[in-house]
Structure formats: C-alpha cells, structure tokens
Amino acid sequence: MVLVHGAFVDGSTWRAVYDLLTRDGYHVAVVQNPNLSLQGDVAATRLVIDAQDGPVVLVGHSHGGAVITEAGTHPKVVALVYVAAFAPDTGESVTTLYGDPNAAESPLVSAPGGFLFQDRDGFHSSFGADLPAADAAFLADAQVPFAAKAMGDPVTEPAWRTKPSWYLVATEDRMIPASAQRAMAKRAGATTVEVAAGHAVYMSRSAETAALIRQVACEVCS
C-alpha cells in the first residue's frame, strides 16, 4: 500500500492509518510530496511505487487524489482509494474542481512566490473540524507551503478510467463538499463508503479509513 497526503500537510498525518495497517501485517509506504507541482508530486509517488515488491493499492487524500489519478497508471497499481479527495478527469485540475483559491469564501490565503496556505485562524473549522483543537493548531502552525501551480496543473491520463476505484466520502467535509465528493466518485465508477467526518477524516476516523483500505487490499490482492 502507498499512502499519498494532500496539500498543507505532510506524510506524517497518515501515522494512525499506517500503524493500524502495519499492525495487521501489511507493508505500507508513505509518500512525501514536494507540493510544488502536480508533476513533481506524481514523480515522487511513482518513485515510491517503483520501490514496492508487489501489487500496490494507491491511496490519496485531498490533493493527493489528483496525484494518484495521474500516478495510478503505473503498472504496479491495482486499485485506487480516494479519501475525501479530488478525482480529476483529463484536462482538469484541483482548481477546476475546487474553484478560485482567492475567492472571498475560500479558506486559502496567498503567499509570496506563488504559494498558498490555509488561513491559520480558520484551519480548525475548515481542514480539521473534527480534530482536537490542539492537534488542529499544531497542523496550522506546521503547514507545508502549497504551490498554486500544483493546484492548477491538469491531469493528463486519469487512472480511474482503467483501474478499480473506491471512495471514502467525508459527509461533514468543509473543504470539499460531500456532494462534490459523491459526484466525483460516481463519475469514476468508484465503490463508495460514507463516514460522518470532516476533511481530515483519515486522522479523525483512522479506523474506518484503514478498514476501507484493508477491504480493498483483500478484494484486489487475494
């Protein structure tokens, strides 16, 4: 299994899911995205996939969904799992699906050099709505700069057109509305599971997230 994080955070946010899966004997690798361009994140993900010995269940959260959509064409990838994630089609980007990051209602703020951050004061209510306040505050202060280019780069060949896909919809998500998640899942022909959680569902509801990944591995790797 290969886990891919999204914007503003790093791979350590997968720790709880990683611990649950490795405890059950699964080999799990975690990607550290540069978050400078979609192509760079895809390249980083493919390097990790290359290093795996067998079939790969590729999992992505948020912007990581765009990454696995492009990287998932790798021949070792046997399934895609989207976790409250973007699933673009050919020519689409996260910006296409999310909208203008500089819109008045957006929780994102621009920074010099073409980077974006989550508004610190709104981080808990947007990204980490169901995380403990202290955890959300730490994540807000430990944000990874996210290049606007990475948000705007289009997907060229969506893997969900040829690989079986699953989608965990976070029904209380304040970053990607549940309705948008359901629409992307339906378009991708993904098997869908719904969890009453916010955008950081893989952290706040790690057991349910790990259970879905485990179920997918059982179905495609048995």
TrEMBL record:
Keywords: Hydrolase
Domain AB hydrolase-1: 1-211
Superkingdom, natural source: Bacteria
Signal peptide location: none
A GO MF label: hydrolase activity
InterPro entries the UniProt entry points to: AB_hydrolase_1 (IPR000073), AB_hydrolase_fold (IPR029058), Sec-Metab_Biosynth_Hydrolase (IPR052897)
Protein name (Swiss-Prot/TrEMBL): Alpha/beta hydrolase
Organism name: Mycolicibacterium confluentis
Lineage: Bacteria, Bacillati, Actinomycetota, Actinomycetes, Mycobacteriales
